[in-house]
Amino acid sequence: MEFNTATYGGASLAVERNRVLRNTYFLLALSMLPTAAGALLGIALQFHMSAGFGLLLFFGVAFGSFYLIEKTKETAAGVFILLGFTGFMGLWLSQILQVALRFSNGPEMIGMAAIGTAAIFFSLAAVATVTKKDFSFMGKFLFIGMVIVILASIANIFFAIPAASLAISVVVLGIFSAYILYDVSRIVNGGETNYISATLQLYLDVYNVFVSLLNILMMLTGRRD
């Protein structure tokens, strides 16, 4: 009997990629628990940070967490650091949730943003998984767009122009929706082989899609009566 090593190697590679994708989805789902806990805690404590110090704190915790996750991504410690980071992100999220809850239709808008985020994620993840198309060509353009929108967002913290806030939220929604396609495609095609790193990337995509959707809904449909 002839043993085809090329076929066997291809099958093993496919199994490994499916394992990474499965573990990523599981850890992503798990990361929503500390996020929800952090958000509820922040709402209960009425957590709020000033623009200047809050921005420094956020970037300090975020980049410190990214560094530690990267250093420990091959160990169980990486999972716990990731979950700790998502708890912090939930606490940070509570600030915009508190703003939304001041509207009479706040709970409805939060629910709509969550449903919309889930719909975007599952639709784009399915496209990347089923087609197996390589979307790596999008990486450079998405990164440049992300840097520009971060700078615009920081500037608008101080200028607080409503039209600019809406435009930034729309652009963020588009960029991070495309990042979902890009990041799932990297897992499917073997560009990302560590499920902890993959989870961090997808978590940030989902988080930003949700926040931008909620911002758009508040600006367009928020009712204060």
Describe the overall structure.
The structure is a single chain. This protein has 225 residues and is mainly α. The chain has one domain. It is 84% helix and 0% strand. It is globular. It starts with a helix and ends with a helix.
How many angstroms separate the termini? 77 Å
Instruction: Give the ordered list of helices and strands.
Output: HHHHHHH
Look at the structure and give the mean pLDDT: 91
> How many domains would you count in the coordinates?
1
In percent terms, what proportion of residues is strand? under 5%
Shape: globular
Secondary-structure-based class equals: mainly alpha
Helix content: over 70%
Number of beta strands:
0
Main pleated-sheet profile: none
Oligomer: single chain
Question: Spans of 5+ residues with little confidence (pLDDT < 50)?
Answer: none
- Count of helices? 7
Radius of gyration: 19 Å
Indicate the topology.
Layout: H1 5-45, H2 51-72, H3 76-100, H4 106-131, H5 139-159, H6 162-188, H7 195-221
Helix pairs in contact: 1-3, 1-7, 2-3, 3-7, 4-6, 4-7, 5-6, 6-7
Entry summary:
This protein is mainly alpha-helical. It has 7 helices and no strands.
Features:
single chain, 225 residues, mainly alpha, 7 helices, 84% helix, globular
